[in-house]
Amino acid sequence: MKICVIGSGYVGLVTGACLANLGSHVTCVDKDPEKIESLSAGHIHFFEPGLEEMVKFNLKNGRISFTSDLDRAAKDADVIFIAVGTPPKRDGSADISSVVRAAGDIAKTMKKLKSRKGLYKIIVNKSTVPVGMGDIVTKILKRSGIPGRSFSVVSNPEFLSEGSAVSDFMNPDRIVIGASDTKAFDAITQLYRSLNAHIIFTDIKTAEMIKYVSNSFLATKISFVNEIANICERIGVDITAVAGAIGLDQRIGKKFLNAGVGYGGSCLPKDVSALVNVAKNAGYRAQLLKGVNEINEKQIDRFAARIRAYFPGAAGKKIAVLGIAFKPGTDDIREAPSIKLMKKLKAMGFAVSCFDPAVKKSHVPGITASEDVYCALKGCDAAAFVTEWPQFKQLNFELARNTMKKPVIFDGRNMLNPGVMREQGFKYFGVGR
Questions:
Q1: Over 90: is that where the pLDDT of 176 sits?
Q2: In contact, 300 and 335? CB cutoff 8 Å
């Protein structure tokens, strides 16, 4: 099949590269000429394991290309994916302006092709959008004079985790296709047939809702275990033992039960807020979901307060923040707990150093990222682990202790063994331990 993907950001590029790898001919469209030039040379603009190699492979084999010309890309495409950003607005609702603009651009392109016999395009919302976006896209095309027989609108939400997106796409738990006609469903199913995955065929609104609910439930699990961790900490119980035991219950499951400083990234915070807003517009107050985000926002405050309580006089004290990306395996800093923590520590009067294997800037004015972890630790009164990069577990802790001014660890991800750390001469503080 011939595919056009509008948007060459995280979701768009992963989608385009993986569909090309499955055998489709893909053209990715983006308005940024510098990005197009870089991608055409096989260089991607963010860190995602395996993606650059996949892009280069498919460029070499002629199955993927990049352009700023939507007319050229969409002219012969069987399927047009919309994969643009839907960032949160101040009220928590999703900003759908880029999706609306993309739909309008598709309508303009299709108007130029109206004389073509048998014109038919499948337009797929890959972006995370509010429930009802499929109807909005349909109205935009019809108001532009595109007859309903010439297109179908489909919702095909992504379930990609940064750091494992290529693997997630190629080995999906499920594929959700929301469509109003079997012709569109059959065509999109054909795209994914070689993955041999469980495919869910549903209506468009249900597919849109599935995406929001999936992310909101994951966020709820994280905030729930953090709430329990805060209780455990006060009554002398170790959250890791509690979470480990309840995770063995198949009704609950082990994943997303790691207590820590909270979630970040571009998906969970905004999708929970967006679903709260969807409920509000429907006349319902989503109390649980509001609490999920509130607990998450306070979690980094608690962590900073604990460091401040250990060092009543912040003046002259230096804290090394280890990990800047919101999670390991990516260089994404959107809503990263580390950024919030560094700002809070700086405001408290601490000197702050930092290090991350993938992020080379602190993104906080007045704080410079170190070249390596031991440089970040040099002369520090404490180390705060904020991102659970695997290499942090493999540190030479004897060297780390000798490099630091004081051997104190605040483990914001409960990634280290408290007993082992204490045996090596550290004062150790976890979350809910």
A1: yes
A2: no
| Residues 6 or more apart in contact with residue 363 via CB below 8 angstroms | 324, 333, 339
Which pLDDT band holds residue 310 (cuts at 50, 70, 90)? very high
Question: How many CB atoms are located within 10 Å of the residue 276 CB?
Answer: 24
Helix (H) or strand (E) holding 151: strand 151-155
Let me know: does 319 contact 381? Beta carbons within 8 Å: yes
175-178 sheet: strands from edge to edge: 64-67, 25-29, 2-6, 79-82, 121-125, 151-155, 175-178, 199-202
- The strand pairing partners of 428, in sequence order, are 409
How far lies 27's CA from each of 6, 22, 161, 265, in Å? 9, 14, 23, 27
CATH node for 2-202: 3.40.50.720
Listing DSSP states for 319-352 in one string gives EEEE--SSSTT----TT-HHHHHHHHHHHHT-EE
**Cβ proximity of 138 and 153 under 8 Å:** yes
Per annotation, catalytic residue among 4, 18, 232, 267? 267
Q: pLDDT confidence of 421, banded at 50, 70, 90?
A: very high
Order of strands across the sheet with 408-411?
Answer: 351-355, 318-322, 382-385, 408-411, 427-429
Question: In the CATH hierarchy, which fold is given to the domain comprising 238-429?
Answer: Rossmann fold (3.40.50)
Residue 60 burial (CB count, 10 A): 10
DSSP string, 243-292: HHHHHTSTTT-STT---SS---SSSHHHHHHHHHHHHHHTT---HHHHHH
> What are the start and end residues of each CATH 3.40.50.720 domain in the chain?
2-202, 238-429
Evaluated on CA atoms 228, 230, 231, 232, the torsion sign reads: positive
375 is catalytic: no
